[in-house]
Amino acid sequence: MVERHVMSIDQGTNSTRCILFDHRGRLVSVAQREHQQHFPRPGWVEHDAVEIWQNLRRVVPESLAAAGVDPGQVSAIGLANQRETTVLWDRRTGAPLGRAIVWQDTRTAPLVEELARRPGEDFFLDRCGLPPSTYFSALRVRWLFDHVKGLEQRARDGEVLFGTMETWLVWNLTGGADGGLHITDVTNAGRTMLMNIRTLTWDEDLLAFFGVPRIMLPEIRSSAELYGDARALLPGVGITAALGDQQAALFGQTCFSPGEAKCTYGTGSFLLLNTGTEPVRSRHGLLTTVAYQIGDQKPVYALEGSIAVTGALVQWFRDRLGLISSAPEIETLARTVEDNGGCYIVPAFSGLFAPRWRSDARGVIVGLTSYITKGHLARAVLEATGWQTREVVDAMNADSSVPLRELKVDGGMTADNLLMQFVADVLDVPVVRPMVAETVSLGAAYAAGLVAGYWSDLEVLRRNWHRAGQWLPDMDPAHRAAEYENWQRAVERSLGWVRQPRPADPPPDA
Length: 510
Fold this sequence. Notes:
Elements: E1 5-11, E2 15-21, E3 27-34, E4 46-47, H1 49-67, E5 74-81, E6 87-90, E7 100-101, H2 109-117, H3 121-128, H4 137-147, H5 151-156, E8 160-163, H6 165-173, E9 183-185, H7 186-189, H8 204-210, E10 219-221, E11 224-229, E12 238-244, H9 245-252, E13 261-265, E14 269-276, E15 287-292, E16 300-307, H10 311-319, H11 329-334, E17 344-346, E18 364-366, H12 374-399, E19 407-410, H13 417-427, E20 431-434, H14 439-452, H15 458-464, E21 467-471, H16 477-496
Parallel strand pairs: 1-5, 5-12, 9-10, 13-19, 19-20
Antiparallel strand pairs: 1-2, 2-3, 4-7, 6-8, 11-12, 13-14, 14-16, 15-16, 17-18, 20-21
Helix pairs in contact: 9-14, 10-12, 12-13
């Protein structure tokens, strides 16, 4: 009997991966290609959507070849994607109308300030569960309309399509300009500030407020159903799931019951808590989001704490400062010292996300003395991730009736044992890592495989989950409290940072 597999396409912030999984949820093969990060101005972050599509065209056959299988052995395709990143393209030609604006981009900060004053945060929280922030897609669409001549009218005339990355890839996989499907799922639509969090449909009040025409928006579908068959790369194979990457990770960690939580440590870090089939409005700076919806079942909701910069800080330490040559070296460097030497780094490169939501915050390094070495800086880089996680968990415990008792973790940074021990210490709960660390990809595969009948139910998926590592808290409570207070003082510096305007140049004859 020919063995079959489920394919997961994970379109992330830094790369696009194609992974094949077997029936036990084990990784069979993986192919990956990075794409270029464009920083045309301070605070601007862009991707080339065509480059990402071309990378997918390469990694799919590479993954199949590595596993020694042909397309006929693929039961279904599931997609996970970087959320909120905004792509606009020409309906007729399929050509993107400029680069995609990435979720980290802060060019819409002035618009966020305006929204906070008018109509106010509650207008948005009541409808979409999200506060005004540079994080979300609708503001990027509005910014493009305001800055690209003629674009808004073209959109109203039906010439322009909008989507996040899964929409863009599904459209291309299913035919592109020649009849491609223009769809999104509830987890991605819920991150636009345009979908009603309860009805799971485009909200007329929000569309009117942002001036976004419905004709340019994709059809909202559940996270797991048969959308259609691929026509490119894997002709005839059903595309049966699409989830935002963090919801996919929650699914891959089998957090199917209320009270179960996971944190994915990647470019940014994202902690999601399953809250069941009713949305819970946060009072402490978290996001109310759709966790997943399987077919026509009731949607499952989550509280989310989004941290903009964690792994990206390690990349900055490597690429911008040149203090390490590869990301894993940061743990080795950090272990050359016993502590941070009184140095704290607040990586507010894109402002601060949960629970503060301050787009005006800026990154700071606090506590520099002549004693500080690059080892202390490396330790401060790692500890910044731990303290940001602590702030999110504090908010989550305040919103939830059940305090966090265990945190499941995944993502590339979980290979750093020093970091994971620090997270356990500052949270004072066990931290556990599964055998399959690539839970974003696994979650998309699980959802796709359920629809295709590759797996029968959620309990089968639970039995696939196995623990690979565990870290238990081992920090003196008084020391933890003192260090947390120091961290919060550093954050206050970040929030109080104000850039002074550059003095005008004197006249030539001054």
